[in-house]
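Q: I'm building a small set of examples for a reading group on sequence design. Run inverse folding on the following structure and report the sequence directly after it, with nothing in between.
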């Protein structure tokens, strides 16, 4: 395997060089960017059970995390404000730590069987025990921390990426020869037996840990 930075090809080092290859964006790709949410955006967010949250720390460290809940569990407060609930996890809270150092975030909302996605860029802050947390309770779990996002940009991504990937196409869901979740966890948790981890990550047991 070659060392990083030793592959052949011409390295692109500035925007002018990149534009010479790719060209300029189509006008509609520029004009589709808006500064606030509209009714279509609200409906898309209300239908989304999964979004990705990207953050960057003050030191440049990066994180992108999937956030899943029943559809509608991201609260649209107004045309410029979203509230995202925190749910139980492994307590790394990489994204939250990053937000404390750099408030800029990016969100990507997905809806099952929809091939377009909704992108929101904005600035975030963390709120402890806000009144709105009561409306985001699921299965008796009321989040103590909400991430408030002030919207700076919102726009839809075209369907090409999801069409190319075949993400929602059952014919493309060929079994992958990958280790199980338990086998992957065992690589970094050698003190636990594989049998213990298989039991922990069994769907019927893991569902009890979601909230």
């Amino acid at each position: 395997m070659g060392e990083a930075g030793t592959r052949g090809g011409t390295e692109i080092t500035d925007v002018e060089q990149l534009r010479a290859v790719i060209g300029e964006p189509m006008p509609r790709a520029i004009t589709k960017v808006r500064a606030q949410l509209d009714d279509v955006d609200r409906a898309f967010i209300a239908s989304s059970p999964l979004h990705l949250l990207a953050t960057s720390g003050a030191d440049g460290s990066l994180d992108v995390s999937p956030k899943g809940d029943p559809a509608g569990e991201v609260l649209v407060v107004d045309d410029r404000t979203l509230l995202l609930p925190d749910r139980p996890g492994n307590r790394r809270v990489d994204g939250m730590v990053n937000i404390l150092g750099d408030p800029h975030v990016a969100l990507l909302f997905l809806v099952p069987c929809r091939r377009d996605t909704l992108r929101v860029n904005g600035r975030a802050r963390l709120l402890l025990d806000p009144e709105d947390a009561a409306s985001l309770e699921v299965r008796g779990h009321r989040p103590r921390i909400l991430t408030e996002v002030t919207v700076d940009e919102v726009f839809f991504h075209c369907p090409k990426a999801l069409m190319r990937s075949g993400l929602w196409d059952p014919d493309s869901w060929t079994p992958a020869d990958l280790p199980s979740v338990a086998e992957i966890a065992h690589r970094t948790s050698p003190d636990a037996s594989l049998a213990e981890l298989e039991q922990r990550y069994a769907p019927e047991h893991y569902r009890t840990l979601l909230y």
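Strands lie at 50-56, 62-68, 75-78, 81-85, 104-110, 117-128, 145-157.
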